TrEMBL record:
The keyword Glycoprotein does not apply. It comes from Myroides odoratimimus CIP 101113. GO terms for molecular function: ABC-type transporter activity; ATP binding; ATP hydrolysis activity; ATPase-coupled lipid transmembrane transporter activity. The lineage of its organism: Bacteria, Pseudomonadati, Bacteroidota, Flavobacteriia, Flavobacteriales. One of its GO terms (cellular component) is plasma membrane. Pfam families: ABC_membrane, ABC_tran. This is ABC transporter ATP-binding protein.
Length: 587
């Protein structure tokens, strides 16, 4: 097992502090609940301490004193129960669920603020694991696990300290366990943390592989590529098994040492108590009280080892959540108002991906006039898609600037910037919701009439109306119940409803049949009226009428002009055009 760098382990108090931070607005309520449970464990200890004077006075034949301490013990039990009841209301009263809700909302907001480049470098399954599993690990079990830890540690310590008021020898007998427990816990905790870190990582990887496998299953079956992906999934499953086996193997001996030390400590406590009785330093009734206390403590302390492991799991989950919430965001440098004109300007833009050997975009200078159509063409990997994405602030360029209406896009909020841009991708993503809600996503306040109007203009109202539930028809996960052309027209309806002045098209008709292409092209014609249109072209014949065609090669614009001007130039564009015509002639 290779070693990885993990963050420094936190103390028990440090972990609780982190869990309170994770609870966000509910952190104050969680802190109060933890304090109440702490008080409950102390009062529970006070109740157990009363066993000593009760049995001592039984031995001395003093019933009045016996009943006095019984009533005191009952009072402590009632106070302990009340504190525990109110403290656990954090779970039962819905505060824990609210904390999960708030944390997931914060994560959702964070995802919106992250650069798309950063998001695309991480597998969606890993983000899913952080939002789902890690939030559950950190929030759901905080009170339950903290309670068990406090009752297992604070209660016995409280009994030991309070017993000093009655008999310092018995107090030492009770407290003798803890000089053993604490060093063993501190010795073992870093190993727990490393183990849970490894386990968290491989579980996230398995989650990512599982989601990818399920989503890609139709394509995998059709392409006969399922064996390779199944092998990857099995490899992730094997990793989880190996980490679990490794953890059990490495942890068994230390866990046995800690458990044995606790058991030996309790036997020593009993042995010392017997020794005191034999030497007549204490009577048999005191010994009875001591045995009751030690046996009860054995039940509480027996949960110590598994609880420390669960705390390490919670800490590992917290670190994953923190890593997500502290990830880089697209900051607004000098906030400016949303522009009223929409010409786009690239000035000497350089962009490269982290760890890339070469620039993805190099010295890009490009002006796009309002209400014009610009096509980006070039071989695969030339930078067409990245250039179009940069307008949406996919990532910040390392050199140069990009502006809309004279305003640098780094000075615009994400909401303002994205409100000006509609995108129709080649691969359409629809959510597992109704058709109407998928269209409404572009404008949450849209009326039903506005949605229908957008659908009509996108050439999809007729087929939607023929569905059993019309616009209320669920479309299934990722829209898989619809054809490619239907999905594409719904995405165009969404863009029409948004009515943004800038439209980016990733040639949405390239993978459709002739009839679907015709319907989609009519929808696109409606969409692009009076707008800036940027087309990522895969077929040159579809952009022949563009106002400007930019030819990219190795991240640079090598040619620029209309179709006719570029053909006269007899350069790279002409070569691409001739190559496309030769391919068409073969079919």
């Amino acid at each position: 097992m290779s070693k990885v760098q993990t963050n420094k382990s936190s103390s028990f108090i440090g972990i609780l502090s982190n869990l309170i931070k994770a609870a966000g607005p509910m952190g104050g309520r969680l802190r109060m609940s933890l304090i109440l449970i702490l008080l409950s464990s102390v009062f529970q200890g006070a109740a157990y301490t009363c066993f000593y004077p009760i049995f001592m006075n039984i031995g001395k034949g003093k019933p009045e004193q016996v009943w006095f301490y019984i009533w005191i013990a009952l009072g402590f039990v009632v106070i302990s129960a009340i504190c525990r009841w109110i403290g656990q209301d954090y779970d039962y009263g819905g505060f824990s669920s609210q904390a999960q809700y708030d944390l997931r909302k914060r994560q959702g907001e964070k995802l919106r603020e992250m650069p798309l480049e950063f998001l695309s470098n991480k597998r969606s399954g890993k983000w899913s694991a952080v939002i789902s599993n890690n939030v559950d690990e950190v929030i759901s079990y905080t009170i339950t696990v903290s309670s068990l830890m406090m009752y297992g540690v604070i209660t016995p310590i409280s009994v030991g300290l309070m017993t000093f008021f009655f008999d310092w020898k018995i107090a030492i007998v009770i407290l003798i366990l803890f000089p053993v427990i604490i060093p063993l816990y501190r010795w073992r905790k870093p190993a727990y943390d490393r183990g849970m870190y490894y386990l968290n990582e491989v579980h996230s990887e398995l989650n990512a592989e599982s989601i990818e496998f399920i989503q890609g299953l139709p394509v995998l079956k059709a392409s006969n590529g399922i064996e390779r992906i199944v092998a990857r999934l099995n490899k992730s499953i094997d990793k989880v098994r190996e980490v679990q086996i490794f953890g059990h193997g490495k942890g068994s001996t230390p866990n046995l040492i800690i458990t044995s030390a606790l058991e030996v400590g309790m036997l020593v406590s009993l042995g010392l108590g017997i020794l005191f009785v034999l030497k007549a330093d204490s009577n048999m009734m005191v010994m009875t009280a001591l045995m009751i206390i030690v046996i009860r403590f054995s039940e509480l302390i027996s949960s110590f080892v598994p609880m420390t492991m669960i705390f390490s799991l919670m800490e590992a989950g917290y670190k994953q959540i923190t890593a997500m919430l502290t990830a880089p965001v697209l900051e607004v440098k000098t906030p400016q108002a949303k522009p009223t004109s929409y010409g786009i300007e690239f000035k000497e833009v350089d962009f490269y991906y982290e760890d890339a050997q070469e620039k993805t975009l190099s010295n890009i200078n490009l002006s796009i006039a309002p209400k014009s159509i610009v096509a980006l063409v070039g071989p695969s990997g030339s930078g067409k898609t990245t250039l179009a994405r940069m307008i949406m602030r996919y990532a910040d360029c390392q050199k140069g600037s990009i502006s809309i209406g004279g305003v640098d896009i780094t000075n615009l909020s994400q909401n303002d910037l994205l409100s000006m841009i509609s995108v129709v991708f080649q691969e359409v993503y629809l959510f597992d919701d109704t058709i109407g809600n998928n269209i409404r996503m572009a404008k949450p306040t849209a009326t039903q009439e506005e949605i229908i109007d957008a659908a009509r203009r996108a050439q999809c109202h007729d087929f939607i109306s023929q569905l059993p539930k019309g616009y209320d028809t669920p479309i299934g996960d990722m829209g898989n119940t619809l054809s490619g052309g239907e999905r594409q027209r719904i995405s165009i309806a969404r863009a029409l409803l948004k009515n943004s002045p800038i439209v980016i098209l990733d040639e949405p008709t390239s993978s459709l049949d002739s009839l679907s292409e015709l319907a989609v092209q009519r929808a696109i014609d409606e969409l692009v009226k009076e707008k800036i249109v940027i087309i990522i072209a895969h077929r040159l014949s579809t952009v022949r009428g563009a106002d400007k065609i930019c030819v990219l090669e190795k991240g640079q614009i090598v040619e620029e002009g209309t179709h006719e001007a570029l053909m006269i130039k007899q350069g790279k564009y002409c070569d691409l055009w001739e190559a496309e015509k030769q391919i068409e002639a073969l079919f």
